[in-house]
Amino acid sequence: MNPAVEQAAKAYTTLDPAGWLTVVKLVPAWSGLLAVGLGIGLLLRGTGPLFRVVSMPLGAAMGFFLAPGVVERLGLGWPASTVAFSAAGGLALVGLLFPAGLAFLAAGVPGGYLGMQYVTPEEWLVGFAPGLFIAGTVGALLERMLAGVIASFLGAWLLVLGLLAALPLLGVGVQAALAQPWGMVAVAGLFGAAASYYQLVVRPPPEEEAKLKAEKAKKQQKEKEDRELEKKFEKMSRKKK
User: Fold this and answer.
1) What CA–CA distance (Å, rounded) separates 202 from 200?
2) Are 181 and 212 in contact (CB under 8 A)?
3) Measured distance CA(188)–CA(176) in Å, rounded
């Protein structure tokens, strides 16, 4: 991996907004347009099928960073690197096909670790299993809420990064913005909060939205059939005359 890219990626494991913005200087300006488009999509429709774009890398990251610790606790003795990459691929697939399952693990694994704090190291499974099940079940039930919040804030950050990368194509300087990393974080936060409210409060759930769309299509089809039937009656009336 390119050292500059690796350093920019590592910045996201720390509280370093200035480091987070360095990715803007490492990507082509045209890719900023793609980031803007994806960001707007996540801001407006992140709780629908588009969330799978987020859940795949999220699942991969969870598998890569969390699975080795779980396997080590189980005492299986498997190579950490093999576990990390295998779990990353497996959870990326879960994120693509079954986001609710990923929500279960995303909330359940930290819940399991929390439960371990209340038992002895030898009885860690007694604390881990209930914590995993309880927190995971809550996470799965709140999948839409989690998806809306995660997609909104990720979409907001992609929008900010995309604009900073693409604006030079229009001859607009962005150095002043890059010099204010916390300001960019605040802007993204405002967009993310507004989008979270829109997706969770204003916009109907995907299931209800699909139902409304189907009802609208059915109504339009019925109106079309009624118009065609009226035309047939008109033609028959004219023939009788």
Assistant:
1) 6
2) no
3) 16
